[in-house]
Structures are given as structure tokens and as C-alpha cells.
Design brief:
By secondary structure, this protein is mainly alpha-helical. Helix content is 76%, strand content 0%.
């Protein structure tokens, strides 16, 4: 169900994703989907968690690779940013952010998912500093700054639905900012 929900979001956008439309794609009923998830919000959260779990595994593999810290950082940036304007994961993130103010469950999930990215980036930066591949820096602060920048760039990519070049431009901008925020030793 979650894979199909992500495919539907990528193809038609989040606004077109209704329980009945998803049920039709799956050959089941909207009630069946609601039975499993309870609400559209919880379905969207489950789809985002499913997508983020796959990315968490990619991050773990990235951090374990025998690469220089600058190369790992570059690959981290690529992994974080959306693939293009119709990236379903980022569409879900934007929707989640909009729904957080009135929903403690969504807020807790957002904090949990963000914390995983923060911790992995801090680990990457700390190893780079320890190996003298990055100049000494406040790892936690720089990770937060980079992630905030990446969130903003990602939002611009997803909202620039008419520009397929937006993802490449965002990556170039992220690389430039990372070189300033995380200088080499």
C-alpha cells in the first residue's frame, strides 16, 4: 500500500491522492485502507516513514564506505535533496510540515526523522574533523545549519514544478554552501 501511495503521489501529486483513488489502484476499498491506517494523515506518515527507512539504510551504507569525508558529505547532500519537482518523499515532507502545528503525533514523528538525519550528518562531520579532512568546527551547529539549508533548497525544488533543472541547481548550491560551512583542513 505504501509503495503504491508513493507512486500515486509521484504521478498525480498529493492533492489527487484520496483513499478511494488509492483503493482503486490497489483493487480494494477505501474502508480497507482506513482500517489499516486510521486516517489519511496516518497513511501519509506511514508512507513517509517507509521512504525514510530506505534512506536511512542508504545513509548507513554511505557512512560505512571507505571514502574521504568530503566525498561522503557530497554523497550525503545528493541523498538528502529531492530527485526533482515530483519527488514524493519531499511532497510528503512539505505536507507533514503544514499539518504539524495541530498534531502532536506528526510533530513527534518529524522530530524523530529529523534527528536521524542530524545524527548521521554529525557523525560524518565529526569523523572528517577527527581525520583532519575538515577544519575544526562545531559539528552539531554546522549539521543543523546544513540541514536547514537543504530543507529550504528541497522545498524550492519541489515547488518549482515547471523546472527539471531545479534539482541540479539545488545540488550545486548545497555543494557551494557546504564548502563554506565545512571547510577542509
Amino acid at each position: 500500500m505504501l509503495e503504491e501511495a508513493m507512486a500515486a503521489i509521484a504521478e498525480d501529486g498529493l492533492a489527487a491522492l484520496t483513499m478511494s483513488a488509492l483503493a482503486e489502484r490497489l483493487g480494494t476499498s477505501g474502508g480497507h485502507i482506513l482500517y489499516h491506517f486510521g486516517s489519511k494523515d496516518l497513511l501519509l506518515l506511514a508512507a513517509l516513514r517507509w521512504s525514510e527507512a530506505a534512506l536511512a539504510e542508504e545513509r548507513r551504507q554511505l557512512l560505512a564506505r571507505r571514502l574521504t569525508a568530503p566525498r561522503r558529505l557530497d554523497l550525503f547532500l545528493e541523498l538528502y535533496l529531492p530527485r526533482g519537482p515530483r519527488d514524493p518523499r519531499w511532497t510528503l515532507w512539505i505536507e507533514l510540515w503544514a499539518r504539524i502545528p495541530g498534531n502532536d503525533e506528526l510533530r513527534a514523528a518529524q522530530q524523530e526523522l529529523d534527528r536521524a538525519w542530524q545524527e548521521d550528518l554529525e557523525t560524518l562531520l565529526a569523523k572528517g574533523v577527527a581525520r583532519r579532512q575538515f577544519a575544526p568546527l562545531d559539528v552539531s551547529a554546522r549539521a543543523s545549519e546544513l540541514l536547514a539549508l537543504l530543507d529550504g533548497l528541497s522545498t524550492r525544488v519541489v515547488l518549482a514544478a515547471s523546472s527539471d533543472r531545479a534539482a541540479g541547481t539545488a545540488l550545486d548550491t548545497a555543494r557551494s554552501a557546504a564548502s563554506l560551512l565545512v571547510p577542509r583542513a
